[in-house]
Design the sequence.
């Protein structure tokens, strides 16, 4: 079993004296009185002395009474341990009162008063050391309890903060889905209408027994293409809307970017041009669903900033051990007075699309959990660039 300072402190707390009774009901006080009484009787009854001329008569431990005085260390230290400094001083005073009469009137030893005083002083010093150390251990124990309580409170606060962040992420996801819903419904309706037309044409051909195998195969290929496109769009939307706990895994940034762009492009009524400038990137550790949500928010913001059309440029690069994803639009830009408010919850300038002001704050929180950051550059009338920076090394993660 290994002993440590903390272990000793716990033992000290459990020993008698940690919770003292008061007054005459205090059993430890009576133990102390009994010890002093017994030792006093022994001290005064014993009359054996060392014969004069013995080589040790001039020492401080040359007779049985010196040994008896040494025994008084026990109640003095006990008093210091139980009653602390006050108990040590009172017990030392009692010790002095007990030994003084014999030292002044009875003791056959040389320098009896000096000898008694040295024993009393030694007992008092040892007792004070015990009392001070006991006080220190008790103070350290209280500090440990305070730190434990503070740590528990901080842990609870961190847990509530994470729960609130998860709720904000889900709220923003729902808001983003609301913005995409109408556009996606329109995109799904178009291929379904085409499928219906081809099915009707095939039915007419079959009814008239005008069966052209090549034409039917062409119709079926077009039906398959439209259904596949609709299925892929709906699957991406379902993946984006699914509620799941953060799941960190190796992520291909370009794959997530493609999925995000497939969804976000439907929120662009002006049909802006999209340009890609993709570099070679390693995989990073992230939650693919949350990373996709961040990219959708940033890309949709870029589209919405270009109400009259323009060019959205998406670039990726690897710089200084971090992946950088830059999304640049040629829209209206961000006024300087709004730059400091971009990541403030519920701040929004999108009156036309009824923005709730959670997209960028939630995105910032997600990237911050990866020990990353979002950099913003903007010029009014020229456009804005949002750069998402994520470290690739786990050593750089918090």
Sequence:
């Amino acid at each position: 079993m290994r002993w440590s300072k903390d272990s000793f402190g716990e033992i000290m707390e459990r020993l008698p004296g940690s919770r003292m009774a008061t007054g005459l009901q205090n059993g430890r006080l009576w133990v102390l009185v009994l010890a002093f009484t017994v030792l006093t009787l022994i001290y005064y009854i014993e009359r054996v002395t060392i014969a004069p001329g013995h080589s040790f008569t001039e020492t401080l431990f040359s007779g049985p009474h010196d040994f008896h005085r040494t025994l008084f260390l026990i109640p003095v230290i006990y008093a210091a341990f139980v009653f602390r400094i006050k108990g040590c001083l009172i017990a030392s005073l009692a010790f002095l009162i007990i030994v003084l009469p014999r030292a002044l009137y009875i003791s056959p030893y040389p320098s009896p008063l000096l000898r008694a005083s040295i024993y009393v002083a030694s007992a008092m010093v040892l007792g004070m050391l015990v009392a001070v150390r006991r006080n220190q251990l008790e103070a350290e124990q209280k500090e440990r309890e305070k730190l434990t309580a503070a740590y528990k409170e901080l842990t609870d606060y961190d847990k509530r903060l994470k729960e609130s962040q998860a709720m904000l992420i889900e709220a923003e996801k729902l808001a983003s889905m609301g913005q995409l819903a109408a556009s996606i419904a329109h995109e799904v309706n178009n291929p379904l209408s085409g499928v219906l037309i081809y099915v009707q044409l095939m039915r007419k051909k079959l009814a008239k027994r005008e069966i052209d195998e090549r034409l039917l195969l062409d119709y079926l290929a077009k039906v398959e293409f439209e259904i596949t496109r609709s299925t892929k769009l709906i699957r991406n939307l379902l993946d984006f809307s699914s509620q799941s706990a953060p799941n960190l895994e190796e992520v291909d940034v370009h794959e997530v970017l493609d999925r995000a762009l497939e969804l976000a492009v439907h929120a662009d009524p002006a049909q802006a041009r999209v340009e890609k400038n993709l570099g070679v990137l390693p995989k990073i550790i992230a939650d693919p669903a949350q990373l996709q949500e961040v990219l959708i928010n940033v890309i949709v913001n870029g589209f919405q900033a270009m109400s009259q059309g323009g060019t959205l440029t998406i670039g990726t690069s690897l710089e200084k051990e971090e992946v950088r994803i830059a999304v640049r639009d040629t829209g209206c830009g961000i006024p300087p007075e709004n730059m400091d408010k971009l990541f403030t919850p519920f701040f929004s300038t999108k009156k036309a699309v009824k923005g709730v002001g959670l997209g960028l704050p939630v995105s910032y929180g997600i990237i911050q959990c990866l020990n990353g950051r979002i950099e913003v550059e903007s010029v009014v009338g020229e456009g804005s660039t949002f750069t998402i920076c994520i470290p690739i090394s786990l050593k750089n993660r918090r």
